[in-house]
Design goal:
By secondary structure, the chain is α/β, with parallel strands linked by helices. It has a single domain (7-273), classed as Glycoside hydrolase/deacetylase (TIM Barrel), CATH 3.20.20. Helix content is 36%, strand content 27%. The chain contains eight helices and 15 strands. Helix 1 packs parallel to helix 7 (242-256) and helix 3 (98-116) crosses helix 4. The chain binds zinc ion. Zinc ion binds at residues 14-15, 71, 75, 127.
């Protein structure tokens, strides 16, 4: 990392749904205790009143540390196909058209408004990361400010993104093009990308997965320090043991020790870089 180059870190926790899990409470508090913002991605059709109430209470107490955004509508798997050896699955994207996706995103957005009023930030993250051009158009038509995607720090990928953007592509050669810190392809939707996932391999949709080790996380993070912003993704439900909670604590404490890292919400990143 160049001397004095500031790197922004943002953390997103996905699949906020159902009941108030111990892991959800513990992880949120770990961030609050360290004065680091955490973004909770809420599934509008699946979240319960007790979670909404708890989140609003935390948000009122720590307005700058708790951020609430929308994660799909109901997180259902609407399609699953194999194309060229790759599994394609998602709630959105695939062959879903504009009207179909607009309707679901709008239903979710209206639920978010009814739960959180003006306490949520109009950012959207697609379940399974699946989206298509019409999905982005629907977000644009509904005046979403931000959408999340993924980015790799590898040089070859960075070059690929530049070419993809020059060609105004969101998907190029069957791969996603990063529009990180930019408005996507002639829309008003600003993209904020995530670069690191705490989960190495998902074993199932419940609580089984292979997590990165602290050592691997540190190594991956070092590679990302050349980026302007580094997004880190986790899912609270998989942190179902003291060791898996401690992994987050140790990782955050290590990040705090690195000079020139700044922790931000997505709204803060949007305000800083959107022009
Ligand atoms: Zn999800």
């Amino acid at each position: 990392m160049k001397k004095n180059k500031q790197v922004i870190f943002t953390f997103r926790n996905d699949d906020v749904r159902k009941n108030l899990d111990e892991s959800f409470i513990q992880l949120t508090n770990i961030f609050i205790d360290r004065n680091i913002p955490i973004t909770h991605a809420v599934e509008p059709a699946n979240v319960t009143p007790e979670v909404i109430e708890w989140l609003l209470d935390k948000k009122n107490k720590h307005p700058h540390l708790i951020e609430i955004i929308q994660h799909g509508y109901n997180h259902k798997l609407n399609y699953k196909t194999e194309i060229g050896g790759k599994i394609r699955k998602g709630e959105f994207g695939g062959s879903r058209d504009f009207n179909d996706q607009y309707s679901d995103i709008k239903k979710g957005m209206e639920l978010m408004d009814s739960y959180f009023g003006n306490r949520w930030f109009k950012a959207f993250t697609f379940p399974y990361g699946a989206r298509n051009k019409d999905a982005i158009k629907a977000l644009d038509a509904l005046n979403f400010k931000v959408v999340n995607g993924g980015i790799s720090p590898k040089l070859v990928k960075q070059l690929f993104y530049i070419v993809g953007r020059l060609l105004n592509k969101e998907i190029f050669l069957d791969r996603k093009v990063s529009w990180n810190l930019k408005k996507i392809n002639k829309t008003n939707v600003f993209q904020i990308d995530l670069a690191i996932s705490i989960i190495k391999k998902y074993i199932n949709e419940f609580e089984d997965c292979e997590m990165e080790t602290l050592q691997d996380l540190k190594r991956e993070t070092q590679q990302c320090l050349k980026l302007t912003n580094v997004g880190v993704l986790f899912h609270h439900r998989y942190h179902n043991s003291p060791e898996k909670i401690k992994l987050i604590e140790d990782y955050l404490d290590w990040l705090i020790s690195i000079p020139n890292i700044k922790f931000c919400t997505q709204e803060e990143i949007f305000e800083k870089y959107n022009s």
